[in-house]
Design a protein that fits this description.
The structure is a homotetramer. Chain A is α/β, with parallel strands linked by helices. Helices cover about 40% and strands about 25% of the residues of chain A. Chain A contains 13 helices and 15 strands. The first copy, chain A, has helices spanning about 15-25, 40-50, 60-65, 80-90, 105-115, 130-140, 165, 175, 180-190, 285-290, 290-305, 315-335, 340-345, and strands at about 5-10, 30-35, 55, 70-75, 95, 120-125, 150-155, 195-200, 220-225, 230-235, 245-250, 255-260, 265-270, 275-280, 335-340. Chain A has a seven-stranded mixed sheet. In chain A, α1 links the parallel β1 (about 5-10) and β2 (about 30-35). In chain A, α9 packs across α12 (about 315-335). The longest helix of chain A is centred in the last third of the chain and has 20 residues, at about 315-335. The relative contact order of chain A is 0.15. Chains A and C meet through β7, β8, β9 and β10 of A and β7, β8, β9 and β10 of C. β12 (about 255-260) of chain B pairs antiparallel with β13 of chain C.
């Protein structure tokens, strides 16, 4: 029996705890040996919750202090490049949360660094591991609904994102922070890259929630044309308040397929005939993708063990960032934007 | 174009209004020409609502006063035999609400009277006309799920039945008043007659609702063995408070089939992630079987026009009554009861 | 009791038969007294099916030959204006199928003619009468999900439309012929007019089906910004082959609401564990909107009786046409198009 | 960090592999250190699959050869008592698969042995840990649907059970082998013990499948009266062929609640409008209760760690056996049987 893969968790926020739980409570193949966060109380709280002794304010200190095999990076987007390059440079395998980075140059830096150092780079697109997404992809790939023609993917999140995550200057806003998964999903299932995008957005709740971030929007609707002629639609609503909602619908040449449903638990009840039948809904993303989070981390550990490239890596992360950049440009300039404009911008 | 079938409605209660609505607003093939009810204010209210000029306190008066082709009898069970015999004796076709009658002798009297007078006799088992029941029966008959082995049918009604309908001495209680449809449905879909039945019942809400009827029960669970070896289960809950609920599940040698669902309208919504997704439920039986009520009446009118026997007649009504009698006997005597005991009771 | 409203049916095609069925078999308030179609065998077939004696090759002949109160116009779009104006000019109330007309000038001509002649003009947007749409609208209007922010409506039809209906020169293509209902629905439920639209379209099946129509598309995706800042999305797929599919999803400030579902009948069954549970789907639009077709015609007859304006008239038809025109222009010119451009086009 | 709980797996069949997978791949808190099975090839196959070095033909050998903390017993019912007593006698904590044993004397022996040796005894009722069952129980306990009045639970399994499991002389037949879970569930959720039961059974497929076991049945329908006056119904169908199906429906004084649904995966698709929408169904019980199997084993390990009694122990196992015995007696004697008859049988 092989020794577990030793993991250093970078970041101590919400998704960090989800990954810590996977490794500590569900994956004997991994071992959480260290945690890094510059904010002392966040660091202590997470370390205590998961019984991690080795605690550091920076990844550099962790690398110098103890030996481990891999990092799981869960910090804000603008920190990704430095952390990923540092880890890869030290020969650590990298699991990197989405969105990959703020721009394509950063994505390329990360990809090159992982490649040059021979480490595995896996992006945190857990939907690719969620059983019903996997099953849907399998059915599409076997031709069950024919060539996809039209794919719609939506993510509606209940609460207002933190300031850094809704500000175009520190992140790429909701299109990136909430809808990265949808960008990846539509491209994955269509089997083609985006050709051009058009985006409309709206701000209904910002004022009432005291949001002063410039260019804030809480509703976004993306229209995509793929290189193969297919069409795509992405919807983001955040805060939507009513729950966490992630669903996909694909129309192929031979049929239709839906992934996910609005209700979340197989308990339904009715206690008032004037009200109706109630189905509990997913309240949060860790509930909605409970399986996917475990399975993506298991895949990361297995990829390290086997030395095989993971199913979702830097290229997938880069394409999602490219879509976000084109989409944001479309919205600001009120016109369809070709991916070629962001992939190879014209020189002034 | 033929003249409409002239109908005299007997009774002015809830189901009477459902049938009146079908004839007046949805069935050009019929014409509601008279209404009968001994209670003046009920008679006036219904007559006004549907614009019926000819109003009578008794069926006899109606027959003497004007000409018509058919009666629709919607009065309490204990009045059925006299009314049906009177109508048939006057050459009127008879649509008779369920339960057919209080005992098998009454059923036989009605059947003989209709037969002797050459009139059509249709029982008010509207589920046989509700589109999803029809579709299920069609699929079963084409062998889609193989020979049915086990059929469960339930009817849960929201409110407390009126005193006469829950008293074993004036009706046969909930097994008859609420579950007649289930008795008919399981026999229809199994394609076999009941051989023996066993019944358990419970009284949870009677005291709190001030029910003093002896032998009152608000929950009933019937276990049936059919002559072909198949099994059946009927559930009744009344008052269930939460809505009107009627569903069937059939397990055949090759598969399973369900009729109906708990939710009632194809509008679903969620406004609170701690509460969940809401599907409006059927509140009442006229909502639940809105199509079936129109279609059974159309079938009655068509049967009169064509002279063909209706799909559901006296025999079906009689078997449902037989099931009820055996079931009640089982419950009171705490033992399985063979249908042969009620079909041909032993002489002391 | 009042006499039935006498109706002359113009057109003998598929939707004509749906309306004929409503009047002849379900609406005692109406009477189908004549039918008009220039194609003899279509005329005869429909007339025989519904027992209509008075048959004409043109509306003019019908008007001269017998007396009636109203017309139901079901012919191809390019004939609507002449027929509607002829009927209104003769004092006949007009029920007009969608799309209203080919352009806004035609719409205005029809509206003015109905108004000048004091006749009722109702557009064939039956979704406004389908029970779950009515219920959804009621819930939205009572504020249950708050102000709508984002509305998606889709219509996918199984078969290839006839040549005239997919040719931009004789109709306005699928955006008009298939998606008129969606244009009306999103505007109705958003409670605001379109401000600008952006459209992508694709042609996946045209070649294989031998379609030579220029500008043919079988997939279309519309992005709408409403005047109130809300967002809208319309999807059309035709031929989609897999069934008839019409659903709506609305995200409001307080919650989400869905209208319709992919499955169509409350019978579900499973006979093969490697295949799965099967829910019959709506095969055609007459099945999907069976109630709506009866209820819209009943509303038309009631509006004639009461003299009140119908719930959906010329203005609604005109807005749907405006959306289609802006959408088609957007698609051809590959840019977002403001409604102001089609409502009041700039002079060269 | 504490050392993992060392587990010896007894049995190498299907459920043994499910538990092995939980411990080896999902529960770092446990460690599978040995496996026992008298059939060499079964033993080797399972040991290889999960990388277990220590392999034994009997539990006694395992106990003598290496040190461990707990056993997981997955062998046929008739072996349970000896194995459980052996393990407890050696101070090993016991996880015991259902049904607990063949009769109540055996149950008592097991319970006494565990108690006398101070070891934990947990029964394999994984439904008590499956998230939607837990959630349902929580809602019932908080009074959401009021006092349960009527509970129905069904288990339909796809394939023919092995000869020993369908023979009343070596097991207690399907009522025990398939429906043990239902016996436990209805008692748990009703919050009351069975008072009397009545059972009907049928044999539809036995002949065609070449079953020669005396008293074989493939359909069973149980009617239960609880001590609190509530009613219960259990259905078993095996082989049902169409999938693995386990659902519960509870009617309480204030409402209704359903656990589980017929469809099994949140992927739905339609590729043929004459066929319909397809929802993949659960094919097997390991799929259906994938979460419950992990969670019950985690609970067992946690109970060992904490020293607290597990949520489901010998008493629950014993009541399920009592229900099975009364039910089988009812079926054979064709009469309702009181639990008092099997709990304290009359002396001849």
């Amino acid at each position: 029996m092989t020794d577990p893969v030793r993991v250093c968790l970078v970041g101590a926020g919400r998704v960090a705890r989800v990954h810590a739980n996977s490794i500590v409570n569900r994956l004997p193949m991994g071992k959480l040996v260290a945690i890094v966060d510059p904010v002392p109380h966040a660091l202590e709280a997470a370390a205590e919750q998961f019984g991690i002794q080795a605690r550091f304010a920076s990844l550099g200190e962790a690398i110098q202090s103890l030996d481990f095999d891999a990092v799981v990076i869960t910090t804000p987007t603008f920190t990704h490049t430095d952390l990923a390059v540092t880890a890869a440079g030290a020969g650590k395998h990298v699991f990197l949360e989405k969105p990959m980075a703020l721009d394509l140059a950063e994505c390329d830096t990360i990809i090159r660094s992982a490649s040059a150092n021979g480490v595995i780079l896996q992006l945190g697109f857990m939907r690719r591991f969620e059983p019903e997404f996997v099953e849907a992809a399998r059915r599409i790939q076997t031709g069950e609904i024919g060539q996809p023609m039209l794919i719609k993917s939506l993510t509606h999140g209940p609460g207002l994102p933190p300031p850094w995550a809704r500000d175009l200057t520190t992140s790429n806003g909701m299109l990136a922070e909430v809808n990265s998964h949808d960008w990846d999903t539509v491209r994955w299932l269509m089997g083609s890259d985006y050709e051009r995008v058009y985006v409309e957005a709206a701000n209904f709740k910002g004022a009432a929630r005291g949001v002063q971030t410039p260019n804030f929007y809480d509703n976004v609707l993306v229209n995509i044309r793929f290189q193969n002629g297919g069409l795509g639609s992405i919807t983001g609503v955040c805060p939507c308040d009513y729950g966490y909602d992630a669903r996909v619908e694909i129309v192929g040449e031979k049929g239709i397929l839906q992934i996910g449903r609005l209700g979340g638990t197989d308990v339904i009840f009715c206690t008032d005939r004037d009200h109706g039948l109630v189905t509990p809904i997913y309240r949060t993303w860790p509930e909605r993708f409970a399986q996917g989070y475990i399975l993506e981390m298991e895949h990361f550990l297995q990829s390290i063990r086997s030395g095989k490239a993971p199913k979702v890596g830097g290229l997938e992360g880069r394409w999602a960032v490219a879509g976000v950049l084109a989409g944001t440009k479309s919205w600001l300039e009120e016109r369809p934007v070709y991916l070629s404009e962001v992939l190879a911008p014209q020189k002034g």
